[in-house]
Amino acid sequence: MFWVLGLIENHFVHRRCKNEHKQSASSKSQQSNKFMFQENFDEIITADNNSELRTQNSELRILLWDIDGTLINSNSSGAFKEYFAPSLEKIFGTSGTLDSMTISGMTDIEIAMKSLCNEGITLEHINNKLSEWLYIYQSEMRRVIDEGHSWNVLSGIREILSATQNHPRFINTLLTGNIYEGAKMKLESVGLWNFFHPSGAFGEDSHDRKNLPALAAERIKKELKIDLQPSQFIVIGDTPNDIACARHFGARAVAVATGRLNPPENLIQHKPDILLMSLENTKEVLKILETI
User: Fold this and answer.
1) Domains 59-73+152-291 and 76-146 agree in fold
2) Contacts by 242-246 with C-beta closer than 8 Å and gap 24+?
3) Where are the alpha helices (DSSP H) in the chain?
4) Whole-structure pTM over 0.90, yes or no?
5) 76-146 domain in CATH 1.10.540.10?
6) Is the pLDDT of residue 3 over 50?
7) Quick one: pLDDT at residue 263?
8) 3.40.50.1370, 3.30.70.20, 3.40.50.1000, 3.40.1160.10: which CATH number matches 59-73+152-291?
């Protein structure tokens, strides 16, 4: 393998390539595609021929999108503590070390666990009160939104989500450290929620982000009733943890240097398959997702 650093219309791309012939995107686009995914994902139309069906299954790519720093950014840094801290305090009596923590790339359960560990509160304690905590978390987050907190959609995101949603090879879903309802509130507030298939993986699913791709994959495969290989999944995110969870599962990793805490020189050390400075160039990003 070797690394190539290129420039695509002012957007740096760092990609890992193999010394093997790869079919061009143009030739792939000429292949007939027997899958049509409806906007609500309720219906899949497939070819009757089993060999054709297997071929088309292998062409599918499931895009596992991170949220914060990848799709959106908060309008104020660290604002999540305005709802996260009181949710911990109301259920566990303290927010522990949350105020001093940097939480980029963690799941919400991991944040809670690490915040409270010095208080003698374990993962088992958190799981025992999970439903109560999630209810208060949602209430506190709704309060903060009602008080005026908001998120900004990053440049190019609506365009690439629309392009992939309308492309027969791709399914957009979420792989995020946010709890499900938190993810929904954030993305509904900026008009992005409906781009995503609901069977992703979320912050209440595990304290370890490395577990999330396998969970998302099982849900997608069960719902679509097809077999998919790990290499058909592409994790898109802005932190080293996004890259690590992709590697752990065997998925492709596309890193984007659009978050506040991980510049490209940091991300590149973790060897993603692709490193993009942004997702602004829809045509080139789509080409990368088709050929990675």
Assistant:
1) no
2) 242/66, 242/70, 242/105, 242/175, 242/209, 243/267, 243/270, 243/271, 243/272, 244/209, 244/210, 244/270, 245/175, 245/209, 245/210, 245/211, 245/212, 245/213, 246/64, 246/213, 246/272
3) 25-29, 50-59, 81-92, 108-116, 123-128, 130-146, 157-165, 180-189, 212-224, 240-249, 264-267, 282-291
4) no
5) no
6) no
7) 95
8) 3.40.50.1000
